[in-house]
Amino acid sequence: MSVLDNWDSWKNFLGDRLHHAQNEGMNNEVIQGLAYQIGGYLANQVDAKNEQERVLADLWSVASPEEQHAIANMMVKLVQNNGTSN
């Protein structure tokens, strides 16, 4: 089963990656930039596996670049309290 198949698994996966990046000293600006790049890749290259991912992909597709950055930043905030290393 892929982490993309389940919304909670996906949030935990992202939370683990976020905590790892922070522990390695990556600053928030870099993390937010990566989140934006990953969001674009997922929206354009990966089929949504659940309803939540479909909503994010649909929002991303109609958002301006500034709005896409906001979506990416909100995803970072959303997963801050997720993951096994939380």
TrEMBL record:
InterPro entries: DUF3243 (IPR021637), Uncharacterised_YmfJ (IPR024702), YmfJ/YflH_sf (IPR038292)
A Pfam family of this chain: DUF3243
Protein's recorded name: DUF3243 domain-containing protein
Organism of origin: Priestia iocasae
